[in-house]
Fold this sequence. Notes:
Helix content: 55-70%
Distance between the termini: 32 Å
Number of helices: 7
Strand content: under 5%
Shape: elongated
Largest sheet: 2 strands, antiparallel
Amino acid sequence: MLVSVVAGALWAMLPAYVPNNAAVLAGGGRPIDGGRTMGDRRLLGDGKTWRGTLVGTLAGVALALVANGVAGPVGDTVGVALPRFPLAAAVGLAAGAMAGDVAASFLKRRSGRERGAAFPGLDQLDFVVGALACAALLAGGWFATTFTPGRLLVVAVVTPALHVGTNVVAYWLGLKDEPW
């Protein structure tokens, strides 16, 4: 039972876990905020670009489509039934993850934090909140059956550790300027 809940939760979040990493790899391009400010601070900053957002979203959707093709064999190997992603859920998870990250950047600027500054809690869960909210909005029935309370708890507990771990690796590889 526990293996099924954990595996199902992590599998269901794959399209949300990948977009921000893909956005870092795509990097650069025109900032979403176009350089605009609110008061004396940028709305978002140079780190949130249209290219990164598009590439991140497409990477998450593509991963969901690939996951659909291998869910049966992988699930059989692990011994659990893994969720499949309708297109609306894939788009909701991937685009929502990017939107959550953009919203967090806005909040960080409003709280006086500079680009790259740590904001514990928000940094690790912003994309999760965005992904889950958008998936619920775009694919409500799928969301309700896929994200059971147990799976949501796994996501809330495991995601911060995964987020920190992948960011440390990206930092070591020179893909990020800070390890958070």
